[in-house]
């Protein structure tokens, strides 16, 4: 009887499982990246753009129509990262005014480590004039005076790039701040992220099992959709709005 009671008490005190934690062991850390091929330029910061483009003294600044085609559709030329590191790309069309250039320049200058990092513009200075009439004016009287200048941006355009001896986590903070303050949708990317996005889009097109895509529906006028679509929907199949 005594032996049975001792066995029961010892069974209650015995733990169900034993966890062993190694105090030391062999750990593997990948080797650091090699930045020997990167050269820091003399002016690592973003340069300042003029508010008004320079014209010859004998030329009157020309006025221009809206020309929304400059903002519609995909960007076919400046859609790759030249430095193959980090940058900001536009996810929709829009316009960049001088205040947006100044905002991006100041944010990057505040967070940039000039000993290891540098930044470059990938867009032109403001060049397209935008006219505006004074408040309270009546209809007519011709086109208004030039109010400010903008730079039209298409979907997929690279706005700026950041390079140097740094990781993506170091540049992500300032790139995200700039991307959130732009007047259109934009995102901070790296070369790996852009390659992954291209691969995913290509995979979706190759492995799509639904035959009724937007392109098929528009080309075959299913449901009489032609009367509700614009010429740009026929061109890009509802992709770039």
From TrEMBL:
Its GO CC terms are: mitochondrial inner membrane; mitochondrial large ribosomal subunit
User: Which UniProt key words apply to this protein?
Assistant: Mitochondrion, Ribonucleoprotein, Ribosomal protein, Transit peptide
Q: Does the keyword Ribonucleoprotein apply?
A: yes
Spell out the InterPro entries in the cross-references: Ribosomal_uL16 (IPR047873), Ribosomal_uL16_bact-type (IPR000114), Ribosomal_uL16_dom (IPR016180)
Q: Which GO terms describe its molecular function?
A: rRNA binding; structural constituent of ribosome
Q: Where in the cell is it found?
A: Mitochondrion
Q: Which residues form a coiled coil?
A: none
UniProt keyword Ribonucleoprotein, yes or no: yes
The main place the protein resides is mitochondrion
One GO BP annotation of this record = mitochondrial translation
Protein name (record): Large ribosomal subunit protein uL16m
Q: Which organism is it from?
A: Parnassius apollo
